[in-house]
Each structure stands twice: as structure tokens, then as C-alpha cells.
Amino acid sequence: MTESVLLPGGYSATVEWENGGSWQLNHEVRKVDEYIEELTLTLKNDVEAEFPQMTVGFRIPKGEIATRWNVNLHLDKTLLPEWGTPVISELASGAPVFCLINQDGSNAMCCSANDALRRIIWTSGVKEHTFEINTRLKFFTMPEPKNTFYQVTLRFDRRRIFFSDAVQDAFAELGKNPAYVPSVTPDAGFAPLYSTWYSYHKDITDAEIEAECAIAKKMGMELVIVDDGWQSVDGECTYASCGDWEVAPNRTADMAAHVKRIHDLGMKYMLWYSVPFVGYDSRNYAKFKGKYLYTNDIMLASVLDPRFPEVRQFLIDLYCKALKDWDLDGFKLDFIDRLALPENVIDPAVAENYAGRDFKNISQATDVLMTGIMEALKAIKPDILIEFRQKYIGPAIRKYGNMFRAADCPGDITANRIRIADLRLSSGMTAVHGDMLRWDYRESAESAAKQLLAVLYSVPQISVKFNEIPADHQAMIRYRLDFYKKHLDALVKGKFHPSFPDMNYPLLRGESDAEAVSTVYVNNLSVPCDKLAPDFKEIVVNASSVPEVLVNLPVDAAAVVRDCCGNKVAEFTVEAGLSAVYVPVSGDVEFTA
To answer: How far apart are CA 114 and CA 133, in angstroms?
Structure first.
């Protein structure tokens, strides 16, 4: 069955559904302003029934459209044919915002859906015969419990504004939804931190953590995340021991005393947990028999079913006890994306008629679980820190997390830059963190600095062994962390402007009321410094591979140049207009009018 809906912009959306049965579809169109429309679709049924598979499609002329954006596209934002690979948004993966972008970086169409819990499959690409961009949103592609009602609102933004402004506006609108009000990030969530993961992986002891933190604090880090391994006696590469969550005695003799020693250094302490895993070797494995979604023989663990109230309570109690017993400051809660049925896995609840479960929908139960965790922890410590990582970074996840980290990309400065730029667009004022930083200690300081410059517009997480890196690497870290703190408002709290998404963001810019910091990642790309004025500074960071940057200044300016370790290496005047300015690789220049 097909129904066309004419929108005020002069184009139409098409709604198709299969096996509709007794379902009735109603639609309502609201014109927000001249270039923004909302389409609300409502499905109703007098009796409980399975949802019909529903597809909403719209076409717009290709025109100048050159690329596309979604937070899960990462390295490939190129246009595809209409039958190209789709992107998926759901509670634990991505977000329901999709943007088509013109050649000049302006928005052609930014479409968003206000359902961040349910799976939506987005396809968008060139229709060869008509040379239009054909976009389709598919709903109810996964088995769901029977229901009588569903409603979703789609927002179509056609304003020709810079694409990142349209994307951030779409996420801001989602954040106004009472179901997706984001948690506030405490100041500590924006502080540089030390992570044990890449430096030690699972082979970590309390003495090593304390030694690293003593150095990290002096370098400007305010927090430590102790990752996987603290609960693992033998450091195995599986999750067989997860589920009991007891401190491995050969790792830490006394967790509370250990955390206190870190606190005495002036640092906060966060601890890693894999939320859904109960390992085959854990004592709790038998306890939850019959309450798993599925098993994973590679990981040697099963995944808890959050639809059981006792499962949710077990996890909430687990974190509350750790928080109180050890005086933690936060949690890195991992693998919540596994709280979903893999493809071709039959829901075990169906055969049991959902016995013992108080929800039929897994995403809804997960939402209740994670909301309960955040509320319980905040009741004990209001400024609790909760870190999640891609891909679980959407509007609903922001309710119960206040630190979002780029997905693992060890050593890959390009991937890290792209991931944090995408996360900045989708995360509002939630703190965005880059993936942990480690590098080859034989690199030059200028080369190692590229790792920190890749995540300059996010919170840096350092994961090196400080007693093994050269002295100039230490000096570089100290300077870059000091630079981050000095320009915090422009870098991570101000207006974020990422240019050329189709070229993997070779130019990033952050602005506060007093200054702008632009970073250029490729050679010979002109950097506009158009806001330079007596009361506004322009800073340009050189993350390219040549010792100069091209800048376009509106007025004559005084320039102060520093190298990657913060040493002043030059001071001169630059005339208005386009100029090639000497800046060492991984250094920066500050312009004042």
C-alpha cells in the first residue's frame, strides 16, 4: 500500500507499508518555517498486531549535492547509487539524522527522525534514470512485540546554511524531546586524562597505575580510566571471567586504598565494566541461566537480557556497590551495543511467551536499565562520570552518559580526527573524547604530536608509558595539554566548524567569544582568519607535513610562532591578505590585531 504526502516545500514524501492488515495510517504536516517541515506519521490498530514493514521515501534533485553525512559513515561520505550500502540508527548504534551536502559545504537536506530507540535503516543515493537523490527510511525491519500504536515525526530542513549548523540544529531539536534530555557533563568530563588500555591492556597492577598517574598529574592530566584487566587474574583475551566483578588480587591488593592514593595525587578515578557480559567461568553464570539473550563462544560469555527486572537490578546494585565501596568517580560502561539480538538469532522470549520479563522490546528495557543506572549513581554522587564509545552515542544514550569516546583506532590520526568531528556534530555539550593516544616512541616529537592534534577538538586521553618515552615527547605532551586547557572554550565548548567532510575534514575550527583556533591537516590549504580584530585572536595550528601555513587575514597582524613543545621560535608582522607564514610542523601561530 502506498500513500503520497505533499510537503510545503513543493516535494512529496511517499509512505509504503506491507502486510498492513487492520493498521490505519494517519499523517500530519507542520510547516515550522519557510524551509523546515515536519511530517508526523501515526499507526493505529484496534487489536495488538505486528507492525507492518513501513518505508518513507523522498526524492530531491541532485543539483549541487556532492556528499552526505551520518554519524556512522566515518571514512566514506561519498554519494552512492540508490542501491548502495545503508546506514542504521537505533538505541545502541548511531543516530537518526542524515544530511545531504552541497559542493560548497552548505546543507541541501537534513532529515531527522525523533525515534532514537527503534532500528531505522537509511538508504540514500543517486537514482540514475532521473538523477535525483532518492532517500528511504525503513521501519520495523526487526521482529518486535505486537502493539496497537506507533508514532514518529520526521523533520526536513532545507535551509542553505553550513551543513554542520543544520546537523547540530537537528540534534538540538532531538535533545528537546522529554525522552532524550541529555545529562550534564561535569567539568571533570572535559579534563585531559590517562588511560591504561593501550599502554598496558589487561596486564596492569595498582603500583603501575599509581606510578603513571604521579607523572600524568604533573603533565596536566586530571583523571585516570582503568580499563579491562583489573578483574582478570590471568589477563586472558576473552570475557570468560566477567560477571562476578571482583578485584583480581594479583592486580590490586586493596581497591579502596588504591583509589584513595590516586585521589591523594589530585586525580579522579574511573573503572571499566562490560555491561552485558557474564563469562562462562564466572560464578554468576549459572545464576542467570535462562536470562540471556544469546551466547558468544568466541568471547566465552553470554549476554544478559535486560527485560528481566532482576537482571537490571543486579547491574544497578553492582555499580552502586562499587561506587560506595571504592569511592570511584565514574565508570566506563562498555559493550551496551551487544544488548540486541544479532542477525538470524531468534528471540528466546518468544518461545517462552515473555515469561519473567516485564518488557517485550529489548531497546525499551535497555533504556530503562541505563536510565536506572544513571539515576542510582547520581543519587550517590551527583557529578558521576559515565563514558560510552562509538557506536552507542545517539540522542537516547546522552541521557545516561556524559563522555562519548571515538571508537578504537589505535595510531590512526585520520580516523581519530574524523570520528571526533562527527561526534562533535552529534553530541551537543556532551564531552567528546578522542580514542586513546599511543605512538611509536622512536618517532620525532613533531610526529608524535600529530596524535594529539588529531583530537585537538575533543578531550585527549593519553595512553603511553611515561618512563619509556623521550624527554621531548614529555615536553610536547605538557605543552599540548596546557594549550588544550588554555583554549578550552574555543576547542571543545564553543562553536565547532568542520570543513570539507568529503575530504575527511582537512580543516577544523573552534570559536569562543574571544578567539578562534583553526587546525590545518593538509599542505597548502588556505586558512581563513576573518574574525581577527583588536578584541578577537586567531590561532592557527599546523598539523600538515610542511613548516608553513597559508592564512588569509582581514587586517595586519602581529604573529607569535611556537614549535610542538611550546618554544617561541619566531615573532613578526603579517600584512592583510593571503600569506604563507612560517610555522614548524605540529607548531602553532597566534595572530593579534
So the answer is: 22
Q: Please answer whether residues 119 and 90 qualify as being in contact, where contact means their C-beta atoms are separated by less than 8 angstroms.
A: yes
Q: How far is CA 553 from the centre of its chain?
A: 34
pTM for the whole thing?
A: 0.96
Strand bridging mode 107-113 / 97-102: antiparallel
How far is Cα 305 from Cα 358, in angstroms, rounded to an integer? 11
Q: What is the mean pLDDT of residues 182-200?
A: 97
Q: Are 291 and 339 in contact (CB under 8 A)?
A: no
Neighbours of 113 (CB within 10 A): 24
pLDDT tops 80 at residue 561: yes
Query: At residue 248, does pLDDT exceed 80?
Result: yes
* The C-alpha cell that represents 86 in the structure block: 545503508
Give the pLDDT confidence score for residue 238 in this predicted structure: 82
Residue 18, number of CB atoms within 10 A of its CB:
10
pLDDT at 201: 94
User: DSSP assignment, residue 239?
Assistant: S
Measured CA to CA, the distance from residue 32 to residue 175 in angstroms comes to 17
Integer-rounded Cα Rg, in Å, for the chain is 25
300: its cell numbers: 566465552
Taking each helix axis as running N to C, give the angle between helix 255-264 and helix 309-326, from 0 to 180 degrees, rounded to the nearest 10: 60
Of 319, 190, 210, the closest CA to residue 259 belongs to 210
H or E, element range at 116: none
Q: For residue 7, what pLDDT band results from cuts at 50, 70 and 90?
A: confident
Angle at 415 between CA 583 and CA 467, to 5 degrees: 70
Contact present, 435 and 444 (Cβ < 8 Å):
no
- 452/469 Cα distance (integer angstroms): 15
Q: Quickly tell me which residue has 580499563 as its cell.
A: 227
For residues 335 and 312, what is the distance between their CA atoms, to the nearest angstrom?
15
Give the list of residues 6+ apart from residue 430 with CB closer than 8 angstroms, or none: 182, 183, 185, 398, 401, 402, 403, 404
The CA-CA-CA angle for residues 421, 481, 536, to 5°, reads 70
Q: How far from each other are the two terminal CA atoms of the chain, in whole angstroms?
A: 64
Burial of 524 (0-12, 13-18, 19+ CB in 10 A): exposed
Nearest Cα neighbor of 31 from 116, 158, 122 is 158
Q: Where are the alpha helices (DSSP H) in 407-502?
A: 413-426, 445-454, 471-486, 488
Q: Which residues, listed in sequence order, are joined to residue 516 by a DSSP beta bridge?
A: 511, 538
What residues contact residue 463 under an 8 Å CB cut-off, 6+ apart?
Answer: 194, 195, 196, 197, 198, 199, 436, 437, 438
Q: Supply the DSSP string of 277-292, one letter for each residue.
A: EEETTSTHHHHTTT-E
